[in-house]
Amino acid sequence: MLIALTARDKVGGLDLRLATRDAHVAYLKGAGDTVAMAGPLLNAEGTMCGSLIILDVPDLAAAEAFAADDPYAKAGLFDSVTLDPWNKVIG
Length: 91
Fold this sequence. Notes:
By secondary structure, this protein is α+β, with helices and mostly antiparallel strands. The protein has helices at 14-29, 60-69, 71-75, and strands at residues 2-9, 35-42, 48-56, 78-85. It is built from three helices and four strands; from the N terminus they run βαββααβ. A four-stranded antiparallel sheet has the order 2-3-1-4, covered by helices on one side. The longest helix is centred in the first third of the chain and has 16 residues, at 14-29.
């Protein structure tokens, strides 16, 4: 099951994002086939302001657990996180 994890940073969260980025990237890279693709969301100035991660998981509960264990989430970076089933059509 593919899940689109979309997370928006809290206002003023860039310093926290940068301070925890290495741990976050290591978490994603260590997840094996669970992470189909990932990258930061950018604001109009091109500054990171959130995350988009496509997860390949057995069910929504696995996506919720993955999201909760993300170092960014544990650090309190996110203002909101949504998990939506996603259907790959192109790419």
